[in-house]
Amino acid sequence: MMPTNWEYCPPLREDDGMTGREHGGTIAIGGDPCDVAVQVDAVKRRNTGAVVTFVGVVRDDGIESIEIEAYEEVAIQEMHEIRDEAMKRCNLQDVSIIHRTGKLPVGDDILLITVSAGHRKEAFEGCEYILERIKERAPIWKREFLQDGSRWVRGNME
Amino acid sequence: MKIYIHMFGRFREQFGAQREIEVPEPITPVDALNLVGATNPDAHDALFDEHHGIRRHIILMVNKKRISHDECTSHFLDDADELGILPPVAGG
Description:
The complex is a heterodimer of chains A (158) and B (92).
Chain A: E1 27-30, H1 36-43, E2 50-57, E3 65-70, H2 72-90, E4 92-100, E5 102-105, E6 109-117, H3 120-137, E7 140-146, E8 149-152
Helix pairs in contact in A: 2-3
Chain B: E1 2-7, H1 9-15, E2 18-22, H2 29-37, H3 41-47, E3 59-62, E4 65-67, E5 82-86
Parallel strand pairs in B: 1-5
Antiparallel strand pairs in B: 1-2, 3-4, 3-5
Helix pairs in contact in B: 2-3
């Protein structure tokens, strides 16, 4: 049986990919939930062979929620630089990076990375490269809320 | 002259988000960090290791541009510069 959402997949536009649309993807920081399907569509080109997504999720480590704080101006700039590095290094076609901020309950999405490439190897490598660089460089911090208080999460490189 | 110290994450909670401080000239970022550290022993321990070096994963920014720990002893701050002091990052 055909998947029920198949017929609703938006068709690729004729001008995608070959005629200079540089970035259909988004680089953003904010409180709104991420829509994976929208980002997958945004990074596709006619010559796309693979789209890889990574979704970071608030894990239940005995906590109720986390609060994410960002130095937004600098984090956005850093994410643009990471996107550009990954596109060049891994031959990606397009990239979306959306990092959420504010208070998020267990199970909510924190980070969505979506990359497109001609082939799967480049897409997987590009997605991982972006994730690791964000963890190293983007000025973003997390605070965990427990039943009886809160604590800052240690740095990724500490 | 005056400079602006801008803190983030756990440092913001420990030491306050932003403060304006009067400093002698010339002053480097590490000198400014020492002034902040002198305000209380917790601040000093949070910013410096046991060899009095800036803790390795602390990020420093002058006017929103990252500055290496090596540059922190040779770069001189100007009047009204903003020194960002960022704890180790934990995004993703």
